[in-house]
Amino acid sequence: MMSKATFPKPPDGGWGWVVVCSCFMVTACTRAITRCIPIFFVEFQQHFSKDTSTTAWINSIMDCTTMLCAPIGSLLSTRFGCRATVMFGGLVSSSGFIIASFSPTIEFLYLFLGLMAGLGFALCYSPSIAIVSRYFQRHRLLATGLAMSGNGVGTFVLAPVVQLLIEVYAWRGALLLLGAFVAQLCVCGALLRPLASPAAPTAKPGLLGKQPAETATPLDRYKPRMLCEVAMAAARRGCRGALACRPELPVLCLSVSLLAYGCITPLVYLVPFAHSVETPERQAAFLLSLLGVMDIVGTVTYSWLIDRECLRSRRAHCYCVAVGLYGACALALPAMRSFSLLVAFAALYGYFNGACTPLIPVLVADLVEPASASTAIGLIYAMHALPYLLGPPTAGWLVDLTADYNAAFFLSGAIIMLGSATFALATCATLASVTCNKGHLKAPSGHGDV
């Protein structure tokens, strides 16, 4: 395991604020645009004459690929650096949008808008979030929250813009112009300057001709027949460092998976649901803008609040509260059948989405060693993949089966609240175990050994 001395000390400022601004734009170009894809939902459905479940696969594949390939982004950033990885991801995702604008069938949208653009987003998203944690330590949550607030700002700005582009240039022209916008990820990646590592100790020349042990490579140290055993041992050490440092981490992974499955359905179907209750198209797009604004408010205010000294050690509890209220909003959505009620839903749902989002990577960083933070963040984002893939089509199947959105939204809210309860129970169990162990340590001796 690497020594802590090999990691540069986070400067908590300086160029770090440029990195935060760059990551802000990365989240705006990735997650915000993904949120705006449901605006195309009715256009795709009508153009290709497909049912709700079939059309929902476009958004599902994009979200699933973005999260499933997050570990690939982490691995490539470890090998080639965050700067090169994000720039390459921007090129891939931009190409996916441009090619998708010429799609003759919905299957082409699955391939290029779903898989290709989603892969490019994956290469950009997790490395940019991870590098913020390297630049900040004391105010890591606030910096991460500011970086991830690009999701809300981007949704606020892009939702009406995308609706206008569809009205003026149709869906093909809108996708083409979004491809040009996504290309800005290459510029954002260029600003992600890596922190300089402390110089490794070097041996003086002429000292029996020996080289420092750090310069030896695994191929120099081990015979070829032992490489398999070495790789397996390294993998086991990596798993212990990334997943077994704290017992709450596997439960957090489960909680995040449940949250991802539940939260994606209202985001994908909010605009179609608004259309079903006779909300005009521009007002339906406004709901996404409002959701984006409240996402910003939730990210910044909740991050600032939890960054206070009195709550910093209670981040897990604050996460459970935010997720529980998030699920309650989803449960209430079927009753929101007027524009004013939908506005209230969008405001509350956006706020709690913004409150939850920056807490996830920060909780992961709290639960693992610094050397494993990037890998662990990539892995926990990969936990979103299957829920994002299955959530919208399953909800679409329920919509087609029941001819309304009630069952889909009820299922969504219940699963989100289950995710909150799961992590809350694990946190309470760990706290009780620690308290019990402290009580045993403080108990007076002299009563004999058990």
Tally of individual helices: 19
Gyration radius, to the nearest Å?
24 Å
Number of domains: 1
Q: Low-confidence spans: pLDDT under 50, at least 5 residues?
A: 1-5, 199-244, 445-450
**What is the global morphology?**
globular
What's the total number of strands? 0
CATH architecture: Up-down Bundle
Largest sheet: none
CATH overall fold name: Growth Hormone, Chain: A
Verbal overview:
The chain has 450 residues and is mostly helical. The protein has one domain (10-197, 246-432): MFS general substrate transporter like domains (Growth Hormone, Chain: A). The chain contains 19 helices and no strands. Helix 8 packs across helix 13 (281-306) and helix 13 (281-306) runs parallel beside helix 15 (339-356). The longest helix has 37 residues, at 406-442. The protein is globular.
Give short descriptive properties of this protein.
450 residues; mainly alpha; Growth Hormone, Chain: A; 19 helices; globular; disordered C terminus
State the gist of this model.
This protein is an all-alpha fold. The chain has a single domain (10-197, 246-432), classed as Up-down Bundle (Growth Hormone, Chain: A).
